[in-house]
Every structure is written in C-alpha cells, then in structure tokens.
Amino acid sequence: MRVYLVVIDESPEAVIALRFAARRAVKTGGGVEILTLLPTVDFVQWGGVQATIEEEARLHAEALVAGAAGTLMEESGLRPSITLKQGDGPKIIREMIAENPDIAALVLGAAATGAPGPLVSHFAGTDAGALPIPLMIIPGSLDRDAIDRLS
Prior knowledge:
five-stranded parallel β-sheet; 5 strands
C-alpha cells in the first residue's frame, strides 16, 4: 500500500500538508503515517524535573496527534498510523523510510511567509537528492479548495 509520511507540529502548514496527503491517499488507495517529533530536552540536573518536562512534552504531542488524526478520519475516513519519536528529525525520517518500504512520499508543509522550517530546509537542501522517495512540499498559502483541486 502506498503510504504518505507527514510530519505534524503546531504550524498551520502542517495541517495543510496533512490534508494534501490524506486526499492523495484516498485517491490512490493508500494510507497516511503521521510523525510527531518530540523536542529533545536539555539535561536538567534533577532527574525528576527532567522526567516531568519530557512527560509534559509527550502528552502535548499526543494531544496534537490525536487532534490531527481525528480530523483526518472525519474528513477522509482514513485511519492513520501514528508515530511519536524524540531525536534528530532528519535522521528519524530517514530511518522510518528505510524501515517501511510502503512509504511512497514524504509530505512537508512550507510556511506561507518567512523562511521554511528546518525539515523543509534540510530535505530540499542538504538531502535533496538522497531520499529514496519523492519529497512533496506543500505551500502553506494554499486554502482548502486549492488543496482539494491539486490533490
């Protein structure tokens, strides 16, 4: 099955990328894998404080992904696979692609204004020719109608 890997965060462009991926998945009989990257917490001298910070970050990420997955199921009927990982984003994405041969494309959203995010910059720059799958960068300026038309 053709799977679209989408990285979700709290940005508006992530929602746009997810909608695009879901619409493509429906049209191609595929699926969606949602990845949320947990922030790496700097070392805190007191282990209990660090554990609390990490747990709060995980709970926040889980709520974010649950909301995105709910919207996806409501709008497209697709039940996405969900992955939460902590660490270096590009490395995690490359590992996921290597481990899952069904992943057919990496779908990222680009901010409507300002510089692109770190993942877009990395995969469209440093790793542009190294990915074994297509990279789809969805402009953050697209509205729902434009996404539906293009997907």
